[in-house]
Amino acid sequence: MTPEEIRQRSKGTLIERMGIEWKYARYGETLAYIPVTPAHLAPNGYLHAATVVALADSACGFGCLVSLPEGARSFTTIELKSNFLGTATSGDITCKATMAHGGRTTQIWDAVIINEMRSDIALFRCTQLLLYPK
Description:
Blueprint: H1 3-9, H2 14-18, E1 21-26, E2 29-35, H3 49-66, E3 74-84, E4 92-102, E5 106-114, E6 120-131
C-alpha cells in the first residue's frame, strides 16, 4: 500500500487528525511518523502518551491490513501494551512496526517509536483478531 493510498483511506479519521505520515506499509512491516506539534503534547509540555499509542496502533493496523491472509477481510485490535522510555517535545517521532506472529486467526505486532535523536521513546505490542466473512 502506498503512502497516498493510506492517506486516501485515512481521510476524516483519527490518523488524519493526528497528522500521521507514511513512508511505507508492506507485508510484515510499516514505517510512519508524526511531526510533533503543540497539539500532540500533554498539559505538562511533554509528548502525550495517547499520541504515541495512536501512532503505534495505526502503524500496526495498516501493517495488519496489508498482511491479511487469504480470505480475511479485516481485523480488530484485541489487546495492546506500551512501555514508555522517553519523550519528545518537537521534531518527528517515528514508528517502525513489524509482524511478530502471522497466524490464521491472529497477528501480533511489535513497534518501536523513536525521537529525532534516534532514542527509543516507547515499545509497543498489539494483538489483532482477523475477521473473515460469515
